[in-house]
Amino acid sequence: MLLGQRINYLRTARGWSLRELGERAGGLSKGYLHNIENVDVTPSIATLEKIASAFDMTVSELIGEQGRELTTTEAALLDAFRSGDTLGAIRIIMACELAT
Question: Which residue range is the domain that position 91 belongs to?
Answer without folding.
Answer: 69-100
